[in-house]
């Protein structure tokens, strides 16, 4: 059966994944586009307007589509050192590092952020388009790792959502969104005390939220990871002060 262009577009859209914040994006009038198998908001009021909001004040991005991989165990750090380009022995609990995942020939599999949440617990944030391939490759490498019995690899993408709040005024309101003090990672009194590349865990409505002072916009800002059931509340708490952006 040959599909019309309209029918093909409807079928394609139906196959796309949606983040937990999708209903909120709809209410705000987002324009959606397909991206790496997800239906993501491209813009709201306009690209220029939203760009200026991030440069001059703050913008909120839904980044739940990005892959999240947990690596735990006594040999977790050694395993990651065998596949990443940076030496994770230099990371204390509560620190993160932008790094590359490489194959044995030195070719880049993906670029990612690695966060040391605790001495034996790491969180990798990988690109949405590479999540399945990255997880498969990591599992393949782990199968050959001498101390694989001391490493647990978990694809947490299905139950962790994420938002990024980016812009020069983020520190003015983030503590109202995520009350302190931290209970894990970098033990700061409040989220605004985090320095660049630091990460901390905070309790919010009995859920554990991880907050890192990292981002890709070139501005100051933070990224938050939280259980799927908590993402609506955490994201919307920041909306009165941060402009939603695509």
How would the blueprint of this fold be written?
Blueprint: H1 5-15, H2 22-27, E1 31-35, E2 38-43, H3 47-56, E3 59-62, E4 67-72, H4 76-81, E5 95-102, E6 108-118, E7 121-126, H5 131-143, E8 152-155, E9 160-166, H6 174-177, E10 184-185, E11 199-204, E12 207-212, E13 221-227, H7 231-238, E14 243-244
Parallel strand pairs: 3-14
Antiparallel strand pairs: 1-2, 3-9, 4-7, 4-8, 5-6, 6-7, 9-13, 10-11, 11-12, 12-13
Q: On the 0-100 scale, what is the average pLDDT?
A: 90
**Form type:** globular
Any idea what the radius of gyration is? 19 Å
Strand content: 25-35%
The CATH class of the largest domain turns out to be: Alpha Beta
Which percent range fits the helix content?
10-25%
Q: Could you state the order of secondary-structure elements as H and E?
A: HHEEHEEHEEEHEEHEEEEHE
Helix-strand makeup class: alpha+beta
What's the CATH superfamily of the largest domain, by name?
A: Probable tRNA modification gtpase trme, domain 1
Please report the total strand number as a whole number. 14
Distance between the termini: 36 Å
Major sheet details: 7 strands, mixed
CATH topology of the largest domain: Gyrase A, domain 2
Number of structural domains: 2
- Ranges where pLDDT stays below 50 over 5 or more residues in a row are none
Query: Order of strands side by side in the largest beta sheet?
Result: 10-11-12-13-9-3-14
CATH architecture assignment of the largest domain: 2-Layer Sandwich
Number of helices: 7
